[in-house]
Amino acid sequence: MTYQIKGIVTDSTGAPLPGAQLMVKHGVVSASSDGQGRFTMTVSPDDKSLVCYFPGMKFTETPISPILTTINLRMFPDHQNHSITRQQSQATPWFDPDNDRPKTYCNPVNIDYNFEYFNHSNNKGISCRSTADPMIVPYKGKYYLFSTNQSGYYVSDDLTKWKYVFAGFQRKPNDDDPCAPAVEVFGDTLVMLGSTYKELPVWYTTHPDDGRWKHLAETALLPHWDPDLFLDDDGRLYLYYGSSNEFPTKGVEYDRASFRPKSVIHDLILLHPELHGWERFGMNNDDSVTLKPFVEGSFMTKHDGKYYLQYGAPGTEFKVYADGVYVSDKPLGPFVYQRHNPFSYKPGGFVLGAGHGGTFKDNYGNYWHIATCMLSLRETFERRIGLYPAGFDKEGTLFANTAFGDYPTTIPRASEDHAKGNFTGWMLLSLHKKVWASSSDSIYQPENAADENMRTYWAAATGNPGEWFVMDLGAEKQVNAIQVNYYEHKANQCGKAMDVYHQYKIFASPDGKNWQLTVDKSNNDLDVPHDYVELKQPLATRYLKIENVHSASGNFALMDFRVFGKSEGQTPAVVSKFVTVRDKKDTRNATIKWQAVAGAYGYNIRFGIAPDQLYNCITVYDATTYDMRGLDKDTNYWFAIEALGESGVSLLSKPVKCQ
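^ that's the sequence the OP posted. Answer follows.
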């Protein structure tokens, strides 16, 4: 039922304002004030506020309700300049926006993660970014990155910078677009499948940069989730698929012409959490009640005549999300569990989780593994992706090197040993540093942007230009790179839009008073939620300030403002009193302890199945103990530890056996 409201509009002196326009906010109902400033309007109970406009005056907004029917509004002069200032970015000795050719990258991968579709899955209309289930396909000298629900994919010449290509396949507003796509190279053609229990085509293209695809087959006959296509050296095609906490992953030979099954369907992998601690459900493999763990994300790699069937477990929302592998002499098995498992594992640090991914070779013959990182802050399936050096050792063991996996990493320009890693040596300078800001929205305080935790963030009170955040590094330090990790606080974007972008400036100061422009992205037109800036030359500074120019959506907000470089002084000493105690009642668990090292801000726990195979790594901050619950029951392990300081990394401690 409608009702009437009435009132008078006056200027700041109380004189009536004739011709003022009154409008229901977000509605079509409007009215104008008469010669005495009076107005009358018929409104609905669903109308919550009234907006008043008059030239030269500030917009005025006031609530309305059936119990508040007489409303008098006073208008005040508006002296603010509301025009948007267009700025050209300036080159500095440390950064040139027109000539930015980094030789390094830093996880999470800096792509324009799509905002989740409105009311998709279980997000209940929440505006947040996500992607997962990635794979990278080398094709004609470039790299193509495919992942879940991006309404397209990404292309790069060198694995550092990624360009978005729109290629939407959505049929209905809440459909995936697509989920966990599988892509394979057939000669000069890319062929793609999406996850489906219904009917989706098999797509193909020879010009992926255009974003146009055709149908190779009108429907992929088998219902499959988390598919992987594998074309063997002999030209035979295989499909691997499955995502379940009840049923095994499956494999089948496919007919290349018809895309129909050519063999019987084989059951391949089931989880065995009673044997493999890392396959147990829970944030730290510690939940045996809520659900059984999930096996998903099949991916096949062939190396030296062996077939490496990779899989993700135990759940995408956990920091222990990881990839394991089984090995066989044949593409459909039988498969044997690799002793070194999980082979892709990252339960500590800024980026958490390294599951449901894919392994590929770069243009120099080096292996890499790209995987899903958990975030799960605003909703369960809020995720990011990370890229890690990988390889096979002389025994044929598949590994992914996640040590320093969220620090600046060098992209190789030749064949190299990925067991040694690609860490630049630039240490973290920003952890727990003194910070302050122009404003804060409620509980989202500045210190949240200096805690190495993706699940906390600082938010300014607005998204307006001029909001800023300052960090005191404590003393003058050598800065080599900066990572600006945004968060979508009070964002209203859902799905892909081509007018979403970030603009900012970074200033440096020796005293916190006199500022020098260091990085200028005030003319940037790209969406860079995890923007990584490699400086052209080292910057000597104590204070850094980032100033907002344009927010992508919502308030200006930072997960973390991460600074990398070196501090003067000695590297930390070798860690002492390093002890691993395996639980005799449940050998899937172990307690790890060590003595704090002066000058260390964190530690890398390295472990593996032999002293020279310490392929897995757990980064720990703010602690000298770790509750390890990811061991295989009947496997002996070796552990070692190194201390992380702003001046460098200590020598690795002597490996100790944990049996």
